[in-house]
């Protein structure tokens, strides 16, 4: 019985490749010592050592060419290190390159058997899990079509569905999730959050926000060398500072004055100074809004039925399209099935990786006067705010309906993906979202010291 506290132990791992000026010299090098001396040695990994404890999630971050993929392949056993050792305590499952381990001429169903067998499952075990795998993948009748006709998103769905059901002790997940759609990416992130309670995860991403959210600690690789192994947030911040340092002096600071925040309750004053310019340019922040469906996964007591989630403008018109920086109202319609005191309705807006960008509920607004609702009566909760600017991509809003207080409450209906929208154009270049600015001003202060 394995009593090691570590799921993965990596000691002094190096990976080198022989590089030749011309392809034919590689062949000559097999027979000539003189030709071999003319080779150059490329070090993809240099003396990498770290351990991953059981139940720990470790992120690996770095630029293209930093050695991330090489490290993952060595961990998974598809690549042999030039020196050093890798000890894996348990079954490891990986989602690396799209279609890896799949036969393009086999159907999805046949590839499930093939891929799961690679992980050591018997035919009987695979048959027992097959329905759950197909259900998780959500590719419908394509499960019986050759995978060579699959889109990249369908590849990811099926591949992730397999590794999610092979009873692995260690999961290795690369950037492949980036090609999936927003709803499936959310589903995968929820699975990874649950998996953290029982197994170890190696998660590779260029997205420092995803690393910070999911990982306990992070490893930063640069040109094959380990730069940092530490707290995920601090490591991500150091990596981000390094990226900027290659383009600019990160120690440079400029003063920026933001004035005139009095009377913030006057809605008419909340106009972004850039709004007119943005609305008439290709930098306009366009939101394509999708209609509410009853298909999303949910949980709760079932004492409240969720009917609809939508956005509307000041005039009360339902929107199919919205503009970042404009005033909107986020609306939730529901019906309680019994009388409920201290009624709470809230929402969270998340990006495709499950990171919460913003959200709110009525707890603070109704702190001194809790809302009581009657059974059978339909209610509409309305939240008015300035829509922030968001980068291009897909987003989802989860809706929660509960009773109690902010600290202690009972969830009656939580819908994970209640509202979906797509940002098609954007001027946001930094951060997870941008704010409509009341003012933006740079001016001299004091005397000229020249």
UniProtKB/TrEMBL annotation:
Pfam families registered for this protein in UniProt: ABC_tran, Wzt_C
Domain ABC transporter: 8-248
Cellular component aspect of the GO annotation: membrane
SMART domains noted in UniProt: AAA
A single MF term (Gene Ontology): ATP binding
Domain of life per record: Bacteria
Record has ATP-binding as a keyword: yes
InterPro entries found in the cross-reference section: AAA+_ATPase, ABC_transporter-like_ATP-bd, ABC_transporter-like_CS, ABC_transpr_TagH-like, Bact_Polysacc_Export_ATP-bd, P-loop_NTPase, Wzt_C
Sorted UniProt keywords: ATP-binding, Nucleotide-binding, Transport
Family of the protein in this entry: Belongs to the ABC transporter superfamily.
Protein name: ABC transporter ATP-binding protein
